[in-house]
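Homework-ish question, so no full write-ups if that breaks the rules, but can someone show me the predicted structure for this set?
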Amino acid sequence: MKQIIHRKIRSNRKPDTKNMKNRTLVSILFLLQLSISCSDDLSFKLPDVEPLLSLQSFVDPDKEFELLLTVANPVQDSTFKMSTDCTVDILEDENTIERLFFDTILYNWGVINKCYLRFLSDSLIEFQEGKEYKVVANHPGFEELKAISVKPASVKIIQVTWKSFVGEMPDWYYDTPSKKISGISKGIDRDTNLIEFSISFIDPDQISNYYRLGINLITKPGNRLFDRRIQYASQSLPNPCYMKFHFDTPYPLYSGWSNPQTYEILWNDNEFNGEDHTIKILVPGSSSQGSKYIVSLYSLNEDYYKYMVSRWKYSISEDDPFAEPVRFFSNTSNGCGIFAFSSLDADTIEF
Amino acid sequence: MNRYLPVISFLFFSVVCSSQNVQLNLFLHDAQTQLPVPSATVIADQMKYRSDKNGFLNFEHEPGEINLIVRSINYNEQRYTLKVFSDTSIVLLYEKVISLNEVDIVSSRISGFTKGKTPEILTINPAEISFFPGLGSNNDLLKDLQLLPGVQSGGEGSSGLIVRGGQYDQNLFNLNGFPLYQPYHFLGFISSIDPFMIQDVEIIKGGYPARYGGKLSSIVNFKTDKHSSDSVLSTIEAGLTIIGAATKFSPDSLSTIAISGRLGTLIALNKTLNEIVPFSPFYNFYDLNLNAFRKIDNKNDLSLTLYYNKDYINNIQTYNYEDNGIKNKDENIIKSGWHDFLAGITWDNTSIDNLEIKTSLFYQDFLSESRQEFHHTIFESPEIKESGISMSSSHILELGFTNEYYFDLKNHQLNGGLFMYGRRISPLAGTFLYSIDEPTNSSTPSEDYINNILLESGIFFEDNYSLNEKTDLRPGIRLTLVTADGSYYFTPEPRLMVSHKLSNAFSLSGSYSTSSQTIKNVSSSNAMVVKDLWIPVTSRIKPSKSYQGEIGFYYNPKTTLRCQINLYYKKMKELSVYNEGASFTVYPDWQDNIIGAHGTSFGVEFLAQANFKNTFILLAYTLSKTTRQSPEINNGKIFNFKYDKPHDLNITVGYQLNKKIKVSCNWIFQSGNMVSFYDREIQYDYISSPLPYLDKVNNVRFPNYHRLDFGLERTKSKKWGKKILKFDIYNSYCKLNPWYLTYDNGELNQVTLFPIIPSISYRIEF
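A: Not a homework solution, just the prediction itself:
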């Protein structure tokens, strides 16, 4: 009897213990999964990359020649400082035509200026259309940086016509830097005096051409001359693209200020190759007597255009974290950057 | 005459009655597997008959008692006695030849991946590999396919397939011949096809038969079991991620119905999670499958497939605060998810000898949407509210019709047919800004470029030709015509497959195939975002094309070891990728963000599989290179593809400890994904901030991905069925593999999704 009772008790205990164990095990596993099955942040180290020597030089006929030499630093180590013990040469037909001089004044202005070196020309090189030029930069610790570019032929403005009317600038005009600086916002500058310029030219046949337009407004209220780069607009958001340009004139509108940046439209000739073409733009009308507009039609070489397009893609998407990354166009070897030419034809319209 | 009339009438009617034979339809099925037994000999009263490939035969006989003798290789001779007085259809269950020893071998030998009818096809039986370790202890068919060489997962835990340098969207998933767009759950971590419903899965990575088209990288066929059975098979499963139930039964000998439903268990955890981790997202999913099969008569079958999967994730975070005494409220809302509904019907007809005609009609509704909203309200008079909505959405409605012909000649198996698909595809993405409910940016898309109608039709033809005993050829052609957005695209797709037996153990195969794709999924290369969009071809976007050549060497001596080596080279054209700087904020028309690209992928794949008495070993290794090139990206230079993974190694071992317990482990090693990240900065002047610099697209490779999974399955057989307990450990040594990157306050961090995850599931089959 005792044995039977004992056996019965034992057999009754086993299922309870077993169930308890199973439940405990499942609970532990469940809590374990809850506690550790979650995302975790770890610092991510980018692969080590070497700094790249970089140059930037846009050779425009209406600007002083300059070449900026700097370094594309790894983001994880941006402490690299440029050495002044470097040289930059301009070559034509493999012959050195000038060794550029280093702008020490700018270099000594401040800490941040030591991140790049500015080189200038003191011999007023006259670059010739159709010729190929090479720039060679040597900086300690880097391979020789080279870039080759051809100065394009200028395209002549056949005609500039204009008409004035009262109207509205397109919306995007008020988002441009020059308007933001002037503090003029949408709704205030409406129904204003406008001038529509039509700039006609003949696009050369069988070659790809790229253009940019610049407008200067020269006024002389009293005896004071003002020459400022002004913001123009097309009737709608420019397509293809436009680019921010910083253009200095000796006579900015505001004394002690430099000219604000403007958005200048870039065109390629895919839709009018070899044909007569007219570009129409709007500018604010000037009531100042004796004012005149200088319309500058720039012919860019292909590298210039491609670089500007890549800079534009970045500038319009840099605030969008979901945008695709952009790789800036480069025509250098052993580094990165841009060395590009433009040619110019200008016309003056006086009122 | 009148005297003899009754006698004559009696004799006449006797003759007539006695000549009214009955029609007997026999279906011969294996008693264990329920599979048909083809080419069996049935003897009835000295007359011999032979069963066809479906195990079917029929003949006429006098009514009354019929004695049948059934003979087939590997089967016992079996005798049946039937009493038949009218036309009858009968299913005969046929016992296989068995012995005790053989039972042991059969029950413990795991086939793993088997070669299909032709060398380019690899097949798995889900039931055989259900004990392999899985995320959340789920048997995931798509993850099982990732064990093969040349088939990779695109990201952490993803069930998506990257096959030979392709992309997720380039795989044709067929459920009983009907295409599916997204057979995944849980952000792509679990497949939505219930293994219970599937008899076998086959994958074709190259040398595609001409009857398949529309995708560039692979064909994955999920086939359900249509055979009737006397018994009802059911299963109930509960795990940490999924609970579900399924049943399969035959209402009569000519019909089969299978139903399955699964639900994510996260729904039960969401409330708990919210209390532990405030504002954690509410996420759940479910899927439903129904397959029905009916044999109308001995020449006509009808089958119905219904499939529905849905995922949804919601999260609302609200912050109330005061700013200078004024009440403010910030709301962050996340709403994402997808659904895929498919209804398809197939009619099989074999009225003419040696000719099978298959006609299918289907409808599909697929929607994938990701939406993030931010609302900022200032409670002053008047109330000011500013909102931003960022979303991407792809909606596809599809109606399809196919008509296929299979004709068996002596040395030729001819296959031809036509197909027609009508689709409405609506991609939408952008960031929409509102102030006091008025739009403030120009990102609002126009309805005109949202809905795109695409019509795709064509014909195909191929011939499976046996040149001799050792050599088979399969030339084929597929012609596709697509109309979209007022444009027409005609694509001929020649295909050729040759296989040759060098000996009993060695064989060689070679193939060339071209393919085109008219609906594509575009994915971002941004390291910090997951942004996919399904897009159609238009007047600006052309169909993608692939051209693939492959050579394979196979060693299959019908012993325990199988090996194969495959070399492939694939060129892809007119792929659609996001342009540099693509932003839906700037270009609300998605076409303005997409450009064309070309791709190249080549590699060598090695697969070795060993089946011992209780052990199964699979070794798969791929060495490959995949690149892309586009004139408008990376300055026109070739760059690494996002999923370029030079090394991919899988080692899987399964071991049957005893009749009840099976253990398995799986070690995966892959090269990391490629992403684009600005890794340098340039300071050009003292005015501007440093410019970020990207030396080349996809310049950063994530660290190598590797993990080790363990699985243990314990089966207890009962009189009423089986109890199966499965215990898995995913990522046993807790390797923190990166999922994506975040950049915050100058620091770059990787987000890991799955550290070590133990899980358990319980299943009963009855």
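Now go work out the reasoning yourself. Hint: The mean pLDDT of chain B is 81.
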